[in-house]
Amino acid sequence: xxxxxxxxxxxxxxxxxxxxxxxxxxxxxxxxxxxxxxxxxxxxxxxxxxxxxxxxxxxxxxxxxxxxxxxxxxxxxxx
Length: 79
Known about the structure:
Layout: H1 2-25, H2 32-44, H3 55-69
């Protein structure tokens, strides 16, 4: 059953890739740079609202971001 579902998903994605690839080719690489910079600036807008003098608020921010930025290290003794 899963093989059939995977096959249908693969065919669906393949059809859509070949359908939209011609649209993606039309956008030149130099045109994507300003859009990426604009989106990055919009994402950085939230950093202005953080009260950097309040250590409690910064500590909450660090506790939320630190687990997402690190990956678990597995010990070498594990079989």
